[in-house]
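Journal club prep — side note

Before the paper discussion, L.F. wants everyone to see what a predicted structure for a comparable chain looks like in token form. Sequence:
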Amino acid sequence: MTCPFKCFLGVLFGLLLTAGCGGSAYSTAPVSGQVTLDGEPVENATVTFTPIGGASELGPGSTGRTDAAGNYSLELVGEQTRGAIVGTHRVTMAVRDEASFELDEEAYSEAVEEASAVVTLPPEASAGIEVEVVAGQANVHDFHLESTP
């Protein structure tokens, strides 16, 4: 074999390994759960998992939106991959009314300032709760929040 042909085969093999089967370039696992406040489901909450740890562990975060029963499932931000990256995450939650999902971030921020939220989550929901996403299993992370007095 000539050198150009060997180089071509090497590049082709590398591209095939990089492309994979159309999945994410990150090790992910499915994540779902429920958000409740004082025992009642929280609807229209955005649940965000942000990876924390060493630089080699970082990758895109994941988000999901709760339904009327407070249930959510995650998808990697910017990818069409279900779940979250395996590892430790900081979880934050924020409630948005249905109409606000149509707004861009600036318009949403202005709308929040003008109107009080239907549901106010306790500070721990925006400060972050640390959880672990484990490979090879369905990760169920329920968040049962209590109102602060």
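L.F.'s comment for the group: The domain at 22-145 is CATH 2.60.40.1120 (Immunoglobulin-like). Keep this in mind when we get to the figures.
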